[in-house]
Amino acid sequence: MVFTRLALRSARPTPLLRQCTTPIKHQHGAVFARAAFPNGVRTLTATSSQQGKVLLVLYDGYEHAQQEPKLLGTTENELGLREWIESKGHTLVTTSDKEGENSKFDQELVDAEVIITTPFHPGYLTAERLAKAKNLKIAVTAGIGSDHVDLDAANKTNGGITVAEVTGSNVVSVAEHVIMTILVLVRNFVPAHEQVARGEWDVAAVAKNEYDLEGKTVGTVAVGRIGERVLRRLKAFDCKELLYFDYQPLSAEKEKEIGCRRVESLEEMLAQCDVVTINCPLHEKTRGLFNKDLINKMKPGSWLVNTARGAIVVKEDVAEALKSGQLRGYGGDVWFPQPAPKDHPLRTAQYKNWGGGNAMVPHMSGTSLDAQARYAKGTKDILESYFSGRHDYRPEDLIVHKGDYSTKAYGQRKP
């Protein structure tokens, strides 16, 4: 179902408005009209006189957005930005419809000046889509992770569009989710909970695949803002060893403080780890990184956690590794594509011997209500910098700017 709000440039009635059946009073006072379409698409249209267009792509909240106003990352609550954006004299178009050439996203981006989307319901800005976006100047990620944008194409579009994200806005949220997922897998929580929910009671059936985290070796692929926080939180569990693989080492002081060690080779680290957590960005060198060959270099029966990006793993190879027993469990919240199709193999993949081993959830680790408040505010700050003409963005928020990369996190790609 699609739920779209548009702020039109003119107050003149349109054919769409003539189809309306029920006027609706918006919380900010604008009058919307609900229109029915043969394909079930619902559209809410507001009329006002505006200038530049901001296109906002979010997931639908339905009754949940009404029940909890803090659910800012929904089409209904619009990051809390509608009133402020319209007060600046701009049009705001909000949609969840982002798939296919006839999507509302594709229809509206052709003259959008600003595009805002999230990692949780990404509007994929491919080279083909960017070529159609003749007015686009800035693409903002409400959250962290701008791999849904073709960054090479962004550097060449309209003289170079700015791609920015709200760095740091949900690193704590994701790090906490990583720790939770590790414990859920190692302690065999999901099968145990499902057992009692069925009205059964068989301790042996679930305890036979339950372990302690203490005494295990845990490694993180990348030790940036999230990876470092994961290691810091793991320190309290008295793991046998905390390892990390990253092109850039932590300082000797941080390594000593955390009690972790850098491993020069990814394969060498994986062979030692009982638990591996992926915390690196998605770019051309990490896409499909965890394929059959690399997974087979992991310690047999180990657990793999991925809250980074779904495309970093080859989903079929992860499912096969669970089926063979090479992996004892896989968990996280990232999928490719998103939303994940109903037949995505990681929805139902299970550990070979006794089932379980699956701790996958929708993409939620970085979108807690606390995180939503932070990335909504950060998005507003980026827009304020843009609208004002100051362009005094926080350097850490910039991914590409003025036709060039502003960070090494996504790699220096095609020249």
Automatic annotation (TrEMBL):
**What are the alphabetically sorted keywords of the record?**
Cytoplasm, NAD, Oxidoreductase
> Which GO terms fall under molecular function for this chain's record?
formate dehydrogenase (NAD+) activity; NAD binding; oxidoreductase activity, acting on the CH-OH group of donors, NAD or NADP as acceptor
* The protein's enzyme class: oxidoreductase
Q: Which Gene3D superfamilies match?
A: NAD(P)-binding Rossmann-like Domain
Q: Which reaction is the catalytic activity of this chain? A: formate + NAD(+) = CO2 + NADH
Q: Where does substrate bind?
A: I144, N170
Location of the protein in the cell: Cytoplasm
For binding NAD(+), which residues are annotated in this chain's numbering? R225, I226, D246, P281, L282, H283, E284, K285, T307, D333, H363, M364, S365, G366
Q: Where is the D-isomer specific 2-hydroxyacid dehydrogenase NAD-binding domain?
A: 179-350
Cite the position(s) of the site with description Important for catalytic activity.
R309, H363
A single Gene Ontology CC term: cytosol
Q: Does the keyword Disulfide bond apply?
A: no
Task: Provide the D-isomer specific 2-hydroxyacid dehydrogenase catalytic domain boundaries.
Answer: 86-388
A Pfam entry, by short name? 2-Hacid_dh_C
Q: Cross-referenced InterPro entries, in alphabetical order? A: D-isomer_2_OHA_DH_cat_dom, D-isomer_DH_CS, D-isomer_DH_CS1, D-isomer_DH_NAD-bd, FDH_NAD-dep, NAD(P)-bd_dom_sf
Its domain of life reads: Eukaryota
**In its UniProt record, which GO terms are filed under biological process?**
formate catabolic process
Role according to the record? Catalyzes the NAD(+)-dependent oxidation of formate to carbon dioxide. Formate oxidation is the final step in the methanol oxidation pathway in methylotrophic microorganisms. Has a role in the detoxification of exogenous formate in non-methylotrophic organisms.
Family (UniProt): Belongs to the D-isomer specific 2-hydroxyacid dehydrogenase family. FDH subfamily.
Subunit text: Homodimer.
What this protein is called in its record is Formate dehydrogenase
- What species was this sequence derived from? Dissoconium aciculare CBS 342.82
